[in-house]
Amino acid sequence: MTTLTIGLLLVGALIVLVLVGMQIAYALFTVAFAGIWIMRDNVGLAFRMLELTVYSGIADYLFATIPLFVLMGLLVSVSNVGRDTFEVAEDLLRRVICGLGVATVAANTIFAAVTGVSIASAAVFTRVAVPEMRRHGYRASFAAGTVAGSSVLGMLIPPSLLLIIYGVLAEVSIGGMFIAGIVPGLLLAGGFVTMLITVTALFPGFVLTDPAASRERRLDRDIERMPAGQMIGKLIPIVLLVILVLGGLYTGYFTPTEAGGVGAFGAFLVALSRRSLDRHKLWQVMKQTGVISVSILLLLIAASFYSRMLSIAGLPNAIAGLVSDTGLGPFGFLVFCALIILVMGMILDSTSILLIMVPITAPIAQSMGIDLSHFGIVIVIAVEIGLLTPPFGISVFTVHNTLNDPTVSVEQIFAATLPFIAVMLCVLVLVILVPGAATIFL
Length: 442
Description:
This protein has helices at residues 3-19, 24-40, 43-56, 65-78, 81-92, 99-115, 118-135, 140-151, 161-170, 174-180, 182-202, 204-207, 211-219, 228-250, 256-273, 279-313, 315-326, 329-344, 350-367, 372-386, 394-403, 410-416, 418-433, 436-439. By secondary structure, the chain is an all-alpha fold.
């Protein structure tokens, strides 16, 4: 049996191990160790490579980016910035068709720019937006689906943990990945807004329990407006934080790691100024930051070990040769990768997909002349769609569990996210066809 055959069998074994419930980090370690041992018939070499990978895998200043951005996101979450952002967006958009749906997308877009985690957005806006949308006559399932659908913006609009993980795995600039995510993220947010207005105008019964009453409420000019001073007060912290972090990053004044540090400190000041951070909450935030960061760093070490095993097996080179022989070309390869990831998204979480696919596909994309920043955005958008597709759909399950309403089933929320999936597929095709959408500012 050739090393290439062994490598292919081990990739299949990895997917099986993850599907049966083994944590992805342990599955990566197990498959990589077994692969090196079998292919080289030397258990000592496998232990030696494991030792070198663990020692050098994250021994870089760049990896401090992860805990710092995680800390910033958690501090922003406990300071109720998401709630205030939604309240301002709701007030400004109250007379727009599907105004609260558009407000949810707008608030999620801003919230994503300082958290970078879709699950955090889904949990926050389920508590904030869904009750308000239901009070104004929106169907509960549609409200929940809007929160789940728009929450995926956190995975694309920088700073995003998925973009950081991809940057590390593909060995490309994390700052460059953040810049590449700007236009696709805005396209996605704009597409969601257009879709919500269109669906509400054409199929009001899908969105509203009583379309006529909801229209009268929307046009009621006697509804009390939020004072301008209060509105500015609610927006100032989040706007300053976005300008501080992303402005410093995009102008080159900060490195990604420095931006994470400045952002975490800024979020800490925001939480203190709002008196939403006591000693108990601070301890919980610090503990959660440690747990999340260590988990991600362990995954990256495991992925590095897995990547070395793939190199020994010659799998990336073999697949590159196969792709070249089939005459797919760069465009065909991008479509092929996107289709595989869409299928994997139905059964695996987003991080697992990146850890399995990027070490194999990134070298092939580079050899075919595909810009790795463009390739990364295509991969991340395809992975995002998996957050909404059954049976896994982690964003949908997060919303369902947070909502805890027996009258709203998981199936109803999945159905309500279908228009969002359609928009995401359109943006995915657009980014594949127009690489400049991701690379215009690079």
